[in-house]
């Protein structure tokens, strides 16, 4: 295989290079070089198109790379590298103008290069690029050795034109979007899987939702006072359930728009605790207690109500994990371990959810290929994405947080004295945290005994 063929194969694998198929060589693919500022108005080129100034050039180069941060660890064989996306490309160029009117051409080019705003550099090898010239621009007039020629040296940097580039999505916003996608996917899956063929099935589903509300209230009583809107969302959902039950009694069925409203209201209520101002460990513990009660349930594959309950619990479990992810993404962590523990808890709950759901879907296989017996996958795929984004964010965040250190006291110390030593100049800010993080109780609040292991963070 020739190098030429190899290059074409690589481009084809990347979905690139189709425009080169009929080309006879690299020199036939070079383009005319030109510079076209976006701020020149009222001028047109000789062909009637946008105004641009063409030039000749010398050897070409560009620089490119990736933004990253390397974290080295003692007693570890490899480093952890955080990746932050691609750098903007840089194009250093030596540009030539010549001719009888080279002095006026050069004066005009100098003016163009000095204009504010984004310009289009029609690069002879790399094609059109949105650029801004940066740094020094050097103009050379060789009046003795080349009197009809002017040379410009400049570096052009590719730019997005945005203050906040679209590729660099805010992590919390990305997680919030993923949570919205999860709730929408779960709502669509639940509506498709429920069997509401009879009025009793519809009323049974509403009873299941009411039981879900009760279990959420019981499990999240620790965080309800710290989250605004719990009681209002609870009352709104109960009123909606009452109205839906009345509709079933009157018409014999649960209208699709009413079903959608019930599911949405329930998801909103479940997620309300994610707005709590309590520490993330307390919020996650409350939600994970909901999951514990769900995962112990069994299913009767011959009972429609039991199958509907399973699918309702799927929605409840997914919304609970999603709520923990949202809270973790917006929480304030004091230490590296706190952020990493939250990430691990989310991953563990995702695995527990998958194990539970897979087991019950295996039982439902005996009922055949009906929609209620098959995992449609919408909700789980969205849940995997949300948990992955959140865990990745928490791991990245952990590198900016304080790392845990441990010491064993060789003689008794007072908490104030030891805190002042471990957190120089910051004892007032850290004393409560020091006592809480070490779980100092009773007499230890006055004097910490010899041999006691103490944690601190740097």
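^ structure tokens above, recovered residues below v
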């Amino acid at each position: 295989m020739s190098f030429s063929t190899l290059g074409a194969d690589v481009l084809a694998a990347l979905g690139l290079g189709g425009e080169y198929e009929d080309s006879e060589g690299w020199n036939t693919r070079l383009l005319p070089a030109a510079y076209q500022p976006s701020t020149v108005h009222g001028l047109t080129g000789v062909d009637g198109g946008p105004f641009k100034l063409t030039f000749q050039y010398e050897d070409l180069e560009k620089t490119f790379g990736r933004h990253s941060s390397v974290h080295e660890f003692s007693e570890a064989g490899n480093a952890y590298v955080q990746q932050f996306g691609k750098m903007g490309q840089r194009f250093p160029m030596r540009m030539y103008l010549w001719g009888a009117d080279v002095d006026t051409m050069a004066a005009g080019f100098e003016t163009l290069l000095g204009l504010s705003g984004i310009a289009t550099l029609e690069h002879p090898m790399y094609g059109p690029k949105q650029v801004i010239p940066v740094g020094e621009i050097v103009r050379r007039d060789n009046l003795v050795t080349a009197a009809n020629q002017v040379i410009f040296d400049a570096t052009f940097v590719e730019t997005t034109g945005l203050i906040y580039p679209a590729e660099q999505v805010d992590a919390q916003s990305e997680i919030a979007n993923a949570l919205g996608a999860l709730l929408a996917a779960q709502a669509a899956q639940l509506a498709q899987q429920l069997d509401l063929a009879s009025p009793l099935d519809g009323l049974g589903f509403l009873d299941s939702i009411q039981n879900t509300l009760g279990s959420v209230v019981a499990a999240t009583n620790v965080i309800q006072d710290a989250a605004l809107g719990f009681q209002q969302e609870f009352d709104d959902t109960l009123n909606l359930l009452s109205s839906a039950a009345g509709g079933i009694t009157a018409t014999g069925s649960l209208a699709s728009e009413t079903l959608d409203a019930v599911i949405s209201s329930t998801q909103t209520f479940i997620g309300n605790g994610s707005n709590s101002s309590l520490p993330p460990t307390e919020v996650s513990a409350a939600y994970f207690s909901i999951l514990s009660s769900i995962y112990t349930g069994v299913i009767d594959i011959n009972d429609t109500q039991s199958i509907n309950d399973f699918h309702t619990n799927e929605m409840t479990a997914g919304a609970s994990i999603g709520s923990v992810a949202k809270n973790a993404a917006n929480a304030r962590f004091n230490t590296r371990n706190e952020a990493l523990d939250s990430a691990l808890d989310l991953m563990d709950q995702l695995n527990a959810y998958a194990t539970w759901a897979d087991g019950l879907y295996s039982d439902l296989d005996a009922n055949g290929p009906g929609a209620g017996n098959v995992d449609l996958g919408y909700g789980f795929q969205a849940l995997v994405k949300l948990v992955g984004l959140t865990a990745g964010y928490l791991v990245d965040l952990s590198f900016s947080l304080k790392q845990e250190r441990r010491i064993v006291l060789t003689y008794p110390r007072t908490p104030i004295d030891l805190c002042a030593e471990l957190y120089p100049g910051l004892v007032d800010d850290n004393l409560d945290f020091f006592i809480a993080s070490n779980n100092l109780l009773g007499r230890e609040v006055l004097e910490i005994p010899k041999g006691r292991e103490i944690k601190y963070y740097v």
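The two ends are 56 Å apart (CA to CA).
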